[in-house]
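Q: I have two molecules that I believe assemble together. Could you output structure tokens for the complex as a whole instead of separate predictions?
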Amino acid sequence: AQSVTQLGSHVSVSEGALVLLRCNYSSSVPPYLFWYVQYPNQGLQLLLKYTTGATLVKGINGFEAEFKKSETSFHLTKPSAHMSDAAEYFCAVSPMGAGGGNKLTFGTGTQLKVEL
Amino acid sequence: EPEVTQTPSHQVTQMGQEVILRCVPISNHLYFYWYRQILGQKVEFLVSFYNNEISEKSEIFDDQFSVERPDGSNFTLKIRSTKLEDSAMYFCASGGGVTGELFFGEGSRLTVL
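A: Yes, here they are, computed for all two components at once.
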């Protein structure tokens, strides 16, 4: 079974500041890990994913995340926040190696607010 | 770029009415999903569908829910007798690659009055 915990349901940063959104996972098998972003009244857009290989993954809009197996973490970061980054961010996990047939399990989401 | 499309974008219905939400997954994908997001809450798995049958379903997916792939392109979610608590955003997703990535539609917002 897989689960995801996102610490902090709301995060507020100043424009230009570092963004750090936390995600810890639990998985009985090696995981695939994902970050999705949801802008107001829109669907879920994939930001980045970890499957195999390099543990630091880069995504769209300047975001990146690092898979740390020892810490069971997959925190999302961006060096400099922009007003357009304000959205809800969801971390998700699925079991590795199962192809397209396994469901994603989502965290509860973190609402990112960017202030001037 | 291929995308998942959903209709309607918003539906308002009376309690007890039947609702059908429609989805067109990405054409070469083989796995299809419905998720639900009640306002302000997490995205919850409802059901997965593969090879013309349900492969997994959650506790939420009770007898009032059903899914169907009536033709080669559409994937539908039917709610037989809607309840107030069915009000939510319903997301369709499809997948087909080895990475397990899912592609989501824009969602169908269901409001039950």
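A: One point stands out. The interface with chain A takes residues 29-31, 33, 35, 41-45, 48, 50, 55-56, 91, 93, 95-107 of chain B (CB under 8 Å).
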